[in-house]
Write a structure and sequence with these properties.
Helix content is about 5%, strand content about 40%. With about 220 residues, it is an all-beta fold. An 8-stranded antiparallel beta sheet has the order 3-17-5-15-7-8-9-10, with no helix packed on it. Strands 4, 6, 11, 12, 13, 14, 16 and 18 form an 8-stranded antiparallel beta sheet that branches. A two-stranded antiparallel ribbon has the order 1-2. A hairpin with a 2-residue loop joins strand 12 and strand 13. The longest helix has 6 residues.
Length: about 220
């Protein structure tokens, strides 16, 4: 274990898998740009994903492009990818293809915590992006596709190969919390009020998280 002594509270750097660990009142801190620092998530996927919802919270003062979550299979590096391309533009990928979303000025919070959810259904191809409880216009992406089960999932970096080829210029710097993923599309009311109940059971659950820290990422308490 590492201890970051410059913080007014104690932060712990963790290595190795932590099974079913509750991270209530905690955050991942990504202190600086890197090509080797990320958090690996380890859900158990039994069959290809025909639909999903993915949600998280983050806090950063970056104005450049950065990756929030990247899911790669051995056959495709951008199975699922959510990138903040600029302060008001997101790029969402499913099955290697992408769409851009522009966040209205009234929704953009600047240097504050931001809540984002991405939901997709293979049957219709409809993808939803929710920012701070507001739904952006629905679009169509990768209709009929199935996301592979052998996913390498990482927070804070974008993979250009399976588990690797990371670019410092796309790395996340800031804080991240409240990471969840379901194998279904959540109801709009739940996405609107940003309430993450345990029904249906999440594949990725912030209150029972299987994860592994790589490089310089620290786990510490929330400051609010």
């Amino acid at each position: 274990m590492e201890q970051a002594g410059l913080w007014p509270v104690i932060f712990l750097g963790l290595s190795g898998a932590l099974a079913q660990t509750s991270l209530d009142e905690k955050v991942f801190v990504f202190p600086k740009p890197s090509t080797n620092s990320y958090v690996k998530l380890m859900p158990r996927l039994l069959e290809p994903l025909q639909q999903f919802t993915m949600c998280l919270r983050f806090y950063t003062d970056l104005t450049r492009e950065f990756s929030l979550i990247s899911c790669a299979s051995r056959n495709k590096d951008n199975e699922i990818l959510l990138i903040k391309y600029s302060p008001t533009v997101y790029h969402a990928f499913v099955g290697g293809t992408s769409l851009a979303y522009t966040v209205p000025g009234s929704t953009y919070r600047g240097s504050q915590w931001e809540n984002v959810c991405m939901a997709w259904n293979s049957t219709t191809g409809i993808i939803q992006l929710w920012v701070n409880g507001l739904a952006l216009p629905r679009k169509g992406l990768s209709k009929g596709y199935a996301v592979e089960t052998d996913l390498f999932i990482m927070l804070g970096q974008e993979q250009d190969s399976y588990g690797g080829s990371l670019d410092e210029k796309q790395s996340f710097v800031g804080e991240m919390a409240g990471v969840y993923m379901w194998d279904t599309v959540l109801p709009s009311e739940q996405l609107r009020r940003m309430g993450w109940e345990k029904v249906p059971t999440p594949l990725v659950d912030w209150t029972a998280l299987n994860f592994e820290i790589k490089g310089y990422v620290v786990l510490g308490p929330t400051l609010d």
